[in-house]
Backbone:
């Protein structure tokens, strides 16, 4: 597969949100606005790229039977690094995303990519895979965030174009499921053509 | 006593772990095709969440906090949960093969169920509301909270599996088939559960 | 090719990974602990600056027990106190910082964290007509409770519970202030 192909497959063919349907928890919980979705996507991408790189480096010497625990330790380390860095330099963002930053550890995308791609491919390709899947995830979250923000608070990236409130259900829990459901329909429809 | 009641009602209905907190959504969507698998998964989750919360609570209280290592919450808890799931699997296989057959296949999946880590982290980092006052949970309350939360998970999962079994028999537009219609159904369920907000 | 899965290899690789990871985390923690402390300090100072008139120097963090509950407060010498007060709101804990001047009047209030319903209770953070009514409030003369409960606080439309909690938080903070004055 070409280097370019590794990056772009994360956008459509193996889009983590709409096709692989992985990492649903942050996808639903943090997309109350476009900005939150974008930030969550970037945070996940950070962990994804670094853990992909390290795992592809160490996988040749890790015994088969303990490879999952070893991968989890590596991922958890990067998540903790991310937590500390965010607390230090972007405390506001860290507060908004809250619990879902530590929960990147159990995001099936990260462990899934480690298992399915990084452990079998070269360091360079694994890094590219991390970037590609990361961008796909970030874009999906941002799109969901944009839709929910427009419907729910009548704004895009914090810029309000109506006075008063939007349809509040869309910033609350039900809206998350419904928006994701309809976007998935749209994605299916467009992808099939 | 009243405090336990508040925790139970709040964890099962008001702050339902799937429908209000978005934890454990992947397995919720993944294994809710059939009522029987949904029940099995709920049982396994119930068991692991309660056990994991008690163990991580104790580790936090007697190990991480005294040593000033609370920044290691995430990494310590996930390791404990992974180890715990393995141990439960081994023990269950030895002492109760029938229960192992019922829950066994779900156990490995639970390590990456964010509900387990989420509840464990919630208990040690968040304050809970009791009427007009708030405080951190003690061990007894944490155990009840974990149990009630996982019962809420089971409730949502079993209700949803029932809906999905009905859904499978209906004529759904092609693009909506499978997950999209399931997600929209969950959305409507979540809307119904919003009705519980404010009762405690 | 993966190494053989014998006991020695497995134990060795797990131990090594854990050692390296702890070392990395230790370093990062050492590097970030200072900025994290500063960021928290800056946040607290910004909140104090919002709830109390301009002051000089570093406020001192102290804590006190009032009616069986522990409160954290900042003593700003010569100006007043900034009390952190948490009560149960509609969706979960509602934490305010309440600035009370040495004259016994509420100076200003700010929401530190909340989990109220977006668009309803969450307006307690943004709706100025609600927040501004507490500025200069004299709790000794006017009762801190919503009108429905016989007080003088105008509640946010359709969010009585949040407004009630907000008023209670301010009232609690005032009790802390009274105790502090009594102690002096």
Residues:
């Amino acid at each position: 597969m070409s280097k370019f192909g590794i990056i772009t497959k994360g956008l459509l063919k193996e889009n983590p949100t709409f096709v692989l349907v992985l990492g649903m928890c942050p996808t639903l919980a943090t997309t109350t606005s476009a900005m939150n979705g974008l930030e969550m996507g970037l945070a996940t991408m950070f962990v994804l790229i670094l853990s992909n790189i390290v795992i592809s480096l160490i996988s040749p010497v890790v015994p088969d039977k303990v490879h999952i625990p070893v991968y989890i330790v590596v991922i958890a380390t990067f998540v903790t690094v991310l937590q500390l860095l965010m607390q230090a330099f972007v405390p506001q963002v860290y507060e908004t995303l809250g619990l879902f930053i530590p929960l990147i550890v159990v995001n099936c995308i990260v462990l899934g990519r480690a298992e399915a791609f990084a452990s079998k491919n070269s360091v360079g390709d694994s890094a590219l895979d991390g970037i590609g899947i990361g961008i796909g995830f970030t874009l999906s979250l941002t799109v969901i965030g944009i839709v929910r923000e427009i419907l729910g608070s009548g704004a895009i990236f914090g810029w309000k174009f109506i006075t008063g409130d939007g349809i509040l259900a869309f910033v609350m829990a039900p809206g998350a499921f419904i928006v994701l459901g309809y976007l998935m329909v749209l994605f299916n429809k467009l992808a099939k053509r | 006593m009243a405090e336990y009641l508040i925790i139970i009602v709040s964890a099962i209905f008001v702050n339902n772990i799937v429908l209000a907190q978005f934890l454990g959504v992947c397995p919720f969507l993944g294994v809710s095709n059939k009522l029987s698998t949904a029940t099995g998964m709920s049982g396994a989750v119930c068991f692991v969440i309660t056990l994991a919360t008690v163990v991580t609570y104790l580790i936090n209280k007697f190990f991480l906090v005294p040593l000033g290592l609370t920044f290691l919450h995430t990494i310590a808890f996930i390791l404990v949960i992974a180890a715990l799931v393995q141990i439960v699997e081994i023990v269950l296989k030895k002492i109760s093969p029938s229960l192992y057959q019922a829950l066994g296949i779900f156990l490995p999946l639970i390590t990456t169920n964010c509900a387990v880590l989420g509840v464990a982290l919630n208990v040690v980092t968040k304050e809970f509301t009791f009427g007009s006052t708030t405080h951190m949970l003690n061990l007894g309350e944490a155990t009840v909270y974990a149990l009630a939360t996982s019962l809420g998970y089971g409730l949502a999962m079993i209700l949803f599996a029932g809906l999905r079994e009905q859904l499978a028999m209906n004529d759904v537009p092609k693009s909506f088939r499978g997950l999209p219609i399931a997600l929209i159904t969950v959305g409507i369920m979540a809307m119904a559960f919003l009705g519980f907000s404010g009762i405690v | 090719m993966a190494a053989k899965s014998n006991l020695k290899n497995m134990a060795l690789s797990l131990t090594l990974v854990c050692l390296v990871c702890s070392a990395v985390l230790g370093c990062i923690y050492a590097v970030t602990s200072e900025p994290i402390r500063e960021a928290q300090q800056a946040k607290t100072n910004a909140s104090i600056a919002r709830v109390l008139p301009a002051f000089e120097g570093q406020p001192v963090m102290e804590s006190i027990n009032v009616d069986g509950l522990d409160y954290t407060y900042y003593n700003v010498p010569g100006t007043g106190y900034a009390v952190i007060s948490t009560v149960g709101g509609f969706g979960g804990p509602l934490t305010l910082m309440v600035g009370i001047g040495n004259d016994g009047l509420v100076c200003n209030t700010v929401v530190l964290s909340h989990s109220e319903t977006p668009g309803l209770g969450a307006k307690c953070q943004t709706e100025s007509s609600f927040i501004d009514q507490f500025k200069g409030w004299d709790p000794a003369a006017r009762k801190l409770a919503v009108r429905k409960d016989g007080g003088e606080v105008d509640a946010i439309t359709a969010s009585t519970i949040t407004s009630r909690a907000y008023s209670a938080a301010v009232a609690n903070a005032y009790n802390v202030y009274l105790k502090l004055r009594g102690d002096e």
